[in-house]
Design goal:
single chain, alpha+beta, FAD/NAD(P)-binding domain, seven-stranded mixed β-sheet, six-stranded antiparallel β-sheet, 17 helices, 28% helix
Length: 622
């Protein structure tokens, strides 16, 4: 039987490609990057990867006019639709050519209903990296996250020390209020609260009914509580690091930006100092020298891969793949962390009570966006607030250990065309579990542990630089994460049963038992453990594979100034250096890491030569 809104939903699927085409035609003036055609044989600094972090670092280093900087990116220039339009931000997985299409290895304790029991692990492969293709959510994390980094032996990374680096890149676009003192107002990256709607109102009311704080802003003095979503947008456009940093800095004569350049390895001299990189572009191999430093900002999967291909990593693993060992650093590729949780916890709602973003995608709305950067196309699609809660208590009950992300569409919203492949979910499971939702409107709430106890690895598949790495996050291998999620599911169900949810929205839980868990008593802890292990999905917050740590930590890779152990002239600066994943989306703290890294590099190299008063380059060795 064809759902009565089949054609309306089909229209939405057709409209998205049309919208992308129109945006490309109408926004030709947006962010034209200056891309190098000819490069030098040697630079002061080479930055590997123009993702969220590398783009900022290269831009900031090129502020020093006497320094020549090369920024290398394996991907390409983003197309206008993918990096400018807030409305289609949520389409970043399906059919996007600007990503690394990583998958995990088969999981033992999770992803049991997924194809080959493998999860997706996408990452940006484009100028701006994740900031170009992510879901726009802006979450700094908790004060406690950074104080904990410092307590683990990383001086200078406590909350008070890093706050200025958040503020350095922020341009807050929200209403006046107490939260303003926590934000920067003149940085390049836009930070904008969303308006919310009836679903947000009911969700916040539900949180208050259950005794949780309702926050003006979760990036303020307190993260614990329920709040409207905050996104990276400015003047109606996505605010990515490529758009906000590179559009101007790429025109500087001392910064060369080279895309489609796949770095094979860092080159070391006999003193184990990084002196350049080798990369491939359009089938040709190039070797470029670095007089001062190489900074690897290739991302959580590619940064450890580049280090290992360069001979920096676990000795036995490198020898197994016939890679010459430069430095035995066992922690490279260890400590992989992510936020994962069950998908499919959904409620139906009264028809017409929730906004339908597809109906707002009119030709006039597209033209309004192209002309004035206003209207529905300039806004985040749907109604998507967050809740940061603590279900385990612990030493500090104000430090959230679970995030609940509310999505204002059902899994059947796209008729199953994209949803299963967006998670690698088996299509038959999708149909069995969700076909009864066809023709309905509703919403889902996805809980994710923010401080997971499970961690995994990134390893080389071979010594071929073009081979994707082996990613094994070992999801839910620690039972504590499952126990946290069971508690979180109970909270999620309680929210859906609060007064405003039931009376205003007529919310009704989709309580169909999962077929693969039919032997367990429905709604028991054993049932939810089974459900969680079968329906596990990533929240795309991978971190920590090149961990920052003091010398006594055997799995540390970089020190507090992000210098790689055992070698000189080499740093790593991206989400891979986080000792622990932050309590929220990771793009914001990655930008902070980049701003701080750029300042540290400047501090280490800018020494005044008293004899002629000029700035000279020197270095503090690792």
């Amino acid at each position: 039987m064809i759902p009565e809104d089949f054609f309306a939903r089909s229209l939405g699927i057709v409209i998205l490609p049309i919208l992308r085409l129109l945006v490309i035609l109408l926004l030709k003036d947006i962010a034209q990057y200056e891309i190098a055609d000819v490069i030098s044989l040697e630079y002061d600094f080479i930055v590997v990867g123009s993702g969220t972090a590398g783009t900022i670092i290269a831009s900031r280093l090129s502020e020093m006019k006497d320094w020549k900087v090369l920024l290398l990116e394996a991907g390409s220039i983003p197309s206008p639709d993918s990096y400018i339009v807030p409305f289609i931000s949520a389409q970043f997985i399906a059919g996007n050519p600007s990503i690394w299409r990583h998958k995990t290895v088969p999981q033992q304790y999770s992803n049991l209903n997924f194809i080959e029991q493998r999860g997706l692990a996408p990452a940006g492969r484009v100028l701006g990296g994740g900031s170009t293709i992510n879901g726009l959510s802006y979450v700094r994390g908790s004060r406690q996250d950074f104080d904990n980094w410092a307590a683990l032996g990383n001086p200078g990374w406590d909350y008070q020390s890093v706050l200025k680096y958040f503020q350095k890149f922020e341009s807050y676009n929200g209403p006046a209020g107490p939260q303003n003192e926590y934000y920067g107002n003149s940085g390049p990256i836009g930070v904008t609260p969303t308006k919310g709607g009836p679903l947000t109102d009911a969700f916040l009311s539900g949180g208050a009914q259950l005794g949780y704080p309702v926050l003006e802003d979760y990036n303020g003095p307190q993260q614990l509580g329920f709040a409207k979503l905050i996104i990276n947008s400015k003047e109606g456009l996505r605010s990515s690091t490529a758009h906000e940093y590179l559009k101007d800095s790429s025109r500087r004569p001392n910064l060369d930006v080279l895309h489609s350049a796949m770095v094979h390895k860092v080159i070391f001299n006999d003193e184990k100092r990084a002196v350049g990189v080798q990369f491939e572009r359009y089938g040709k191999i190039f070797t470029i020298g670095a007089k001062r430093e190489v900074i690897v900002s290739a991302g959580v999967f590619e940064s450890p891969k580049v280090l290992m291909l360069s001979g920096v990593g676990p000795r036995e693993h490198l020898q197994y793949h016939n890679v010459d060992v430069v430095a035995d650093v066992p922690g490279v590729g260890m400590n992989l962390q992510d936020h994962v949780g069950p998908i499919g916890l959904c409620w139906t709602a009264r028809k017409g009570v929730l906004p339908n973003p597809v109906k707002e995608l009119t030709l006039s709305a597209i033209i309004e966006f192209a002309k004035y950067r206003t209207g529905p196309v300039s806004e985040y699609p749907g109604d998507n607030p967050n809740a940061f809660i603590n279900v385990n208590g612990g030493i500090d009950p104000t430090w959230p250990d679970v995030i609940i992300f509310l999505s204002s569409v059902l899994p059947t919203y796209d008729l199953g065309i994209f949803y299963p492949s967006a998670y690698n979910l088996r299509k038959q499971v999708y149909l069995e579990q969700f076909r009864e939702l066809y023709g309905n409107e509703g919403f889902c709430m996805d809980p994710f542990p923010l401080r997971p106890e499970s961690s995994g690895t990134v390893r080389l598949a071979s010594n071929d630089p073009n081979a994707l790495p082996l990613i094994d996050p070992k999801y839910l291998s620690n039972p504590a994460d499952v126990a946290t999620l069971i508690k979180a599911v109970r909270v999620v169900k309680a929210i859906g049963n609060t007064t405003r949810m039931v009376e205003d929205l007529e919310a009704k839980f989709h309580n169909k038992p999962l077929k693969q868990c039919s032997t367990e008593v429905y709604d028991s802890d054993k049932y939810w453990e089974c459900y969680i292990r079968h329906m596990t999905a990533t929240f795309y917050h991978f971190t920590s594979t090149c961990k920052m740590a003091p010398p006594e930590d055997p799995l540390g890779v970089v020190d507090a100034r992000l210098r790689v152990r055992g070698v000189q002239g080499l740093r790593v600066a991206d989400a891979s250096i986080m000792p622990r994943v932050t309590t929220g989306n990771t793009n914001s703290p990655t930008m902070m890491i980049a701003e701080k890294a750029a300042d540290m590099i400047k501090e280490d190299w800018l020494l005044t030569d008293v004899s002629d008063g000029r700035k000279k380059l020197s270095a503090e060795s690792s």
